């Protein structure tokens, strides 16, 4: 019983030890400003990672989230700044902040659903399909932005990424709401149970009457939607959409999922574990910066932590 | 019933998401608002090029190594607090590589300069110039628009003209903006966003 509890809490213990170590090494770590900053920084990864968790729970993977983030962020910025000009009708369609955000979310959702459709329709490995989408979405971002940032998106849009609400940064509120919704979906709904069932044993799930294709379609759709939420957060925080935004975010989100205890072979894991995983990565990044560790070493350390998490995952599965 | 609620939600969201205007009116409105392009043109040609606030690169490097606080106070420009500041620098060097994105230049003191001629973005030139400040503009967004317009003038007009005559092996003089940090590794290659490059021989 105690061993089981220890196993379940291993990421939380790792986070606690990490925080303790960094706070002993740097007096700046446990300041309110720094902690808010860490939370603000991890909120993007949290949003992307909770979507990724659902995908990984079905034994899939989505490598396109970073590029989808960039594309949706660019489209959102482009619509906010330039709207749509219909020359032949002498008509200008302008987008409010809400309109730009909704358009970005819709596009993210559609890209995710498309990924899911290709994977299920043609029985292709998710790794390959989403790798292709990674390139397509990045290319589309470059085409849409012409390789240049789209800046000055307005103060109300900027507020989403930089503002405060009841003493807490707005991105933290957004990621908290996203986490609560996805935790509810994964734990309290039939859809959530189906996700675990598919990841645990796809054949058994199929034989028990679960419509695997539609569940996968929805799961990849949610991952795309979450990437779009991340895109809105990133561009609003910078008040600008950068064509190279989100590069390697897919790796950070997969790392958060794995460190959080979700098995890459599906069926085991939780969204709360992923949130802890994303926090570990955020705290690790912040700690390494505070300790003046070279950025090159930071990458090495992050890679080793991910490797360690996968080894622990494999060992516990063998047991 | 459910369908009805869904349609109402869609209509409310749609009403609050988009608006329609005559395209010609929007274009007229854009023309009568503050002309960042003209302002950036004048800031570049009448202000930045004529002001004599660029510091010799060798002099700055020596001072940053020996007394960074003094170097940052005397020559650095920054909007907020922090360890980094923008500097307007000038110097001479030899072009050792001409790339699509810029020039690789070595100075007489063997410092390697990466002169970006294609990707001129950000606020480095605006801030290093020290000629405009945030309070001159109504909003942060307007202040950033100036950077965008200024970068456009340099990237699209000034630098392509300068670059035409420059080849590998040429000696050049250049001035431009660079960002330095008190904590950065002094041996790293220095990245410069140019405001003028000219061939000296």
UniProtKB/TrEMBL annotation, chain A:
InterPro entries, sorted: ABC_transp_permease
Protein's cellular compartments: Cell membrane
UniProt keyword list: Cell membrane, Membrane, Transmembrane, Transmembrane helix
Keyword Nucleotide-binding found: no
Domain of life of the source: Bacteria
Primary location class: membrane
GO CC, any one term: plasma membrane
Membrane topology: Multi-pass membrane protein
Listed transmembrane segments: 42-61, 92-114, 126-144, 164-185, 217-234, 296-312
GO molecular function, one term: transmembrane transporter activity
Protein name: Ribose ABC transporter permease
Species the sequence originates in: Emticicia agri
Automatic annotation (TrEMBL), chain B:
Coiled coil: none
Protein name stated in the entry: DUF2291 family protein
Pfam families in alphabetical order: DUF2291
InterPro entries: TM0957-like_sf (IPR036215), UCP033535_lipo (IPR014582)
């Amino acid at each position: 019983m105690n061993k089981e509890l220890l196993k379940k809490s291993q990421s939380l213990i790792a986070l606690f030890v990490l925080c303790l170590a960094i706070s002993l090494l740097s007096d700046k770590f446990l300041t309110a400003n720094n902690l808010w900053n860490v939370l603000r920084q991890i909120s993007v990864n949290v949003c992307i990672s909770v979507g990724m968790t659902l995908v990984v729970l079905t034994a899939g993977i989505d490598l396109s989230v970073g590029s989808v983030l960039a594309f949706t962020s660019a489209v959102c910025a482009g619509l906010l700044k330039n709207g749509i000009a219909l020359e032949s009708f002498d008509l200008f369609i302008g987008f409010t902040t809400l309109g730009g955000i909704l358009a970005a979310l819709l596009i993210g959702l559609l890209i995710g659903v498309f990924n899911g459709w290709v994977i299920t329709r043609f029985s292709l490995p998710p790794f390959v399909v989403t790798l292709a989408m990674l390139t397509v979405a990045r290319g589309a971002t470059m085409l849409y932005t012409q390789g240049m940032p789209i800046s000055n998106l307005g103060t109300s849009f900027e507020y989403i990424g930089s503002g405060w609400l009841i003493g807490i940064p707005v991105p933290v509120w957004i990621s908290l709401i996203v986490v609560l919704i996805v935790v509810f979906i994964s734990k309290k709904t039939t859809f959530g149970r189906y996700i675990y069932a598919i990841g645990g044993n796809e054949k058994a799930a199929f034989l028990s009457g679960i419509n695997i294709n539609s569940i996968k379609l929805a799961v990849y759709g949610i991952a795309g939607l979450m990437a779009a939420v991340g895109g809105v957060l990133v561009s609003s925080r910078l008040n600008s959409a950068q064509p190279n935004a989100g590069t390697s975010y897919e790796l950070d989100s997969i790392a958060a999922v794995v460190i959080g205890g979700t098995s890459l072979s599906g069926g085991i894991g939780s969204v709360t574990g992923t949130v802890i995983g994303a926090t570990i990565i955020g705290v690790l990044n912040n700690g390494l910066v505070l300790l003046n560790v070279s950025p090159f070493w930071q990458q090495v350390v992050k890679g080793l932590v991910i490797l360690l998490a996968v080894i622990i995952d494999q060992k516990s599965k063998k047991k | 019933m459910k369908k009805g609620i869904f349609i109402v939600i869609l209509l409310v969201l749609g009403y609050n998401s988009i608006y329609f205007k005559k395209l010609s009116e929007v274009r007229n409105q854009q023309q009568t608002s503050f002309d960042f392009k003209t302002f950036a043109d004048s800031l570049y040609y009448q202000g930045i090029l004529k002001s004599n606030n660029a510091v010799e690169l060798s002099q700055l490097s020596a001072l940053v190594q020996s007394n960074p606080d003094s170097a940052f106070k005397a020559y650095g420009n920054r909007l907020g607090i922090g360890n980094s500041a923008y500097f307007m620098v000038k110097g001479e060097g030899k072009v050792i590589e001409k790339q699509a994105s810029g020039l690789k230049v070595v100075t007489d003191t063997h410092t390697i300069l990466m002169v970006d001629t294609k990707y001129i973005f950000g606020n480095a030139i605006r801030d290093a110039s020290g000629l405009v400040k945030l309070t001159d503009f109504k909003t942060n967004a307007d202040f950033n628009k100036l950077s965008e317009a200024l970068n456009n003038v340099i990237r699209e007009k000034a630098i392509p003209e300068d670059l035409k005559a420059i080849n590998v092996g040429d000696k050049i003089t250049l001035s431009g903006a660079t960002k330095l940090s008190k904590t950065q590794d002094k041996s790293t290659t220095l990245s410069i966003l140019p405001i003028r490059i000219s061939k000296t021989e």
